[in-house]
Specification:
Largest sheet: 8 strands, mixed
Radius of gyration: 22 Å
Shape: globular
CATH superfamily of the largest domain: Dihydrodipicolinate Reductase, domain 2
Structural class: alpha/beta
Number of strands: 18
Helix content: 25-40%
CATH class of the largest domain: Alpha Beta
Number of helices: 13
CATH topology of the largest domain: Dihydrodipicolinate Reductase, domain 2
Number of domains: 2
Strand content: 15-25%
């Protein structure tokens, strides 16, 4: 474990054994889909293996998912593409053993991001902090210098926060960690759609169920919350765990290669089986500015895992991409950082810029505003499986809706009798009307 010092200029260094190298799950298809193991002799020959001065990386949030970012960056450090110079986390004593790996053992640790920013110049800042702190940490990172900023998804909980970030000097230095956009299966389908051979897109729908046990909600103080310490959180399947699904839909609907579509109208319905402040099932729908109809359903209230799937309906047929088509998530994480580091050298456009999240943010915020509020799923629909930290709330009607009828358009054939809706609203008008609302009013 790292030594922890109280002085701002202290530079604690992790000590201990090297620990295991990052392992990739067998059979993920990563190499088949174009991903080579970092450090292999033929990995990305078009990218310089050793830079004269590798960019110095600072990581905000070293535990939890932040440790997976650290392991991904360590793979790139082996190639000479970066140096993991510093990390900050208020819970240094709880850091995982993965920080003992090579290329991480010399990382300097700080309790706060302010201390880290004052210590040494950084070239690349990675933000993996809790959702309600994303805006603050991104603002501080932009003000700290001219470093590139990698902001883990979701960028921020609300459209007002995203707009604020986009108005800041240097906002074009921010990229967002929607790592699934690196997947060849998704980018390949997008190119085929743009090529015109698959026909004109009429509708896109997507769905998935990722079960969440009680332990998931007890792991941190912001899980399952809509607000925390006066800041919006909006934790839930569409706005956190399965937010990738939403971004994938708007990316596939975009009219240009790297662009994402934006919604014209939207509404949403949010419900909870588990007694939490936020929701564990969400359904949003609407029409994009280019006329494409969208429906997106996602939930945690299921005892069974249902991999996400996106269906693109054109005037020539249906085309799908699903979770099973993608490489192991850690491989995508490596490629996401590789992509942004390459953009720093001027080699390519960042895969997901901050502005590329406008469609996601407009749609989720409008769906939230237009919804009738979070509905409690009727008790007769809910089954509680397991006990204590292993308990999961299961709603069979939601499971049947998503698992068994995935080839049918939700707009034409699917419904939940107990789920209430409000009409679709114009996104720009709804967001403009909400501009003066407080966080408490928005997150009602």
């Amino acid at each position: 474990m790292p030594k922890v010092f109280d002085k701002e200029t202290a530079a604690p260094v992790i000590s201990g054994g090297a620990g295991p190298a990052l392992k990739r799950e067998p059979g993920t298809g990563a190499e088949r889909d174009g991903f080579r193991p970092a450090g292999s002799r033929d990995a990305r020959p078009d990218v310089p293996r050793k830079l004269p001065h590798p960019p110095r990386v600072g990581l905000i949030g070293a535990g939890g998912f932040g440790s997976r970012h650290a392991k991904a960056l360590a793979l790139l450090a082996r190639e000479g593409l970066c140096e993991i110079a510093a990390a900050c986390d208020p819970r240094l004593a709880a850091l995982p053993e993965s920080w003992h790996e090579p290329f991480l053992r010399e990382t300097r640790f700080f309790r706060t991001h302010e201390q880290m920013f004052r210590a040494d110049p950084l070239d690349y800042i990675v933000i993996v902090s809790p959702l309600h702190l994303h805006e603050e940490h991104c603002l501080r990172a932009l003000a700290a210098g001219d470093a590139l900023v990698y902001l883990e998804k979701v960028p921020v909980p609300t459209f007002a926060q995203l707009r604020n970030l986009l108005e800041q000097p240097g906002a074009d230095r921010v990229a967002v960690g929607f790592q699934m956009l690196e997947a060849p299966a998704i980018r390949g389908l997008k190119q085929r759609l743009l090529g015109g051979k698959l026909g004109k897109i009429r509708e896109i729908w997507a769905s998935g169920l990722w079960p969440r046990l009680t332990s998931y909600y007890e792991r941190t103080n912001w899980a399952g919350k809509t607000m925390l310490d006066g800041r919006p959180v909006l934790d839930g399947p569409l706005t956190n765990a399965l937010a990738h699904l939403v971004q994938n839909v708007f990316f596939l609907a975009g009219d240009e290669s790297g662009e994402c579509a934006r919604p014209l109208t939207a509404t949403g319905s949010f419900a909870r089986a588990r007694p939490i402040p936020s929701y564990d099932f969400g359904w949003m729908k609407g029409v994009m500015e280019n006329g494409i109809v969208f429906n997106i359903l996602a939930g945690h209230c299921s005892r069974e895992f249902v991999p996400w799937k996106v269906v693109v309906r054109t005037d020539q047929g249906d085309y799908t991409v699903g979770e099973e088509d993608l490489p192991f998530s850690d491989a995508l994480l490596v490629e996401s950082h590789r992509s942004l580091l390459a953009s720093r050298r001027g080699n390519r456009r960042p895969t997901c810029r901050l502005a590329d999240c406008l469609g996601y943010s407009m749609a989720t915020s409008t769906a939230w505003l237009a919804s009738p509020g979070i509905q409690d799923i009727p008790a007769a629909e809910v089954t509680l499986d397991g006990a204590a930290t292993d308990a999961v709330y299961h709603v069979e009607s939601i499971h049947q809706l998503i698992a068994n009828r995935r080839t049918e358009s939700p707009s034409a054939s699917r419904k939940l009798d107990w789920l209430h809706w409000n009409p679709e609203v114009n996104c720009r008008e709804a967001l403009a009307a909400a501009a003066g609302k407080s966080c408490e009013q928005f997150c009602r």
